[in-house]
């Protein structure tokens, strides 16, 4: 029953958010189009449900500047002013609502990892984390745990997944919303 309600809520809430946020999303898209060369959207392959790959969608927050040898500069040197703002308020994550709508992600679940994060993938495999859809938010994000500590992240994901029910699902969404609102205050 939980999975059905979660699935329905993901779809209805994603569609509702997209309708409500459409003017804002178009504005951000337009601003990024003016300030970036290339697409204002950033798509990247991630590991999802049952270890299948999918493309996560985000607003672009970094430029593609390279050094004289053609190697991308460090991320900290490539993030744009607009990108800093978008990341501070998690606006760069909003296009992931499309990922939820098409079924690659849920609103709540473990953050999808990169293909090259081998240790995190192994840790999640050991704990069965790939048996659930990845999410936009979850316990690890709300606890400040990043992908830089893969074992702790996988353990936190397992803690969240093993206790997940409708109460926690809505609790994590509410906590995320309040955390973002606090950033504006």
Write the layout of secondary structure elements.
Blueprint: H1 2-35, E1 41-47, E2 53-59, H2 75-78, H3 81-88, H4 96-102, E3 106-108, E4 113-114, H5 118-127, E5 135-137, H6 139-142, H7 150-163, H8 166-184
Parallel strand pairs: 3-5
Antiparallel strand pairs: 1-2, 1-4
Helix pairs in contact: 1-4, 5-7
Spatial extent as radius of gyration: 17 Å
Class of secondary structure makeup: mainly alpha
Total of helices: 8
Number of extended strands: 5
Weakly predicted, low-confidence segments = none
Could you give the distance between the termini?
38 Å
Residue-averaged pLDDT = 93
| SSE run | HEEHHHEEHEHHH
* Biggest β-sheet: strands ordered side by side in the sheet: 2-1-4
Give the CA-based shape.
Answer: globular
Biggest β-sheet description: 3 strands, antiparallel
Helix content: 40-55%
Percentage of residues in DSSP E strands: 5-15%
Quickly describe the structure.
With about 180 residues, this protein is mainly alpha-helical. It has helices spanning about 1-35, 75-80, 80-90, 95-100, 120-125, 140, 150-165, 165-185, and strands spanning about 40-45, 55-60, 105-110, 115, 135.
């Amino acid at each position: 029953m939980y999975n059905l309600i979660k699935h329905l809520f993901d779809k209805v809430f994603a569609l509702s958010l997209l309708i409500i946020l459409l003017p804002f999303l178009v504005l951000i898209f337009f601003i990024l189009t003016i300030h970036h060369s290339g697409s204002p959207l950033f798509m990247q392959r991630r590991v999802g449900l049952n270890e299948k790959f999918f493309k996560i969608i985000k607003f672009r927050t970094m430029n593609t500047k390279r050094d004289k040898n053609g190697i991308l500069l460090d991320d900290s040197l490539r993030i744009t002013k607009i990108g800093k703002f978008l990341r501070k308020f998690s606006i760069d994550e909003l296009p992931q609502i499309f990922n939820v709508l098409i079924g690659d992600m849920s609103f709540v679940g473990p953050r999808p990892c990169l293909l090259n994060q081998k240790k995190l993938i192994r840790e999640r495999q050991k704990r069965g984390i790939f048996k659930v859809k990845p999410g936009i938010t979850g316990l690890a994000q709300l606890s400040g745990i990043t992908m830089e500590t893969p074992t702790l992240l996988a353990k936190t994901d397992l803690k969240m997944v093993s206790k997940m029910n409708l109460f926690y699902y809505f609790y994590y969404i509410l906590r995320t919303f309040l955390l973002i609102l606090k950033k504006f205050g």
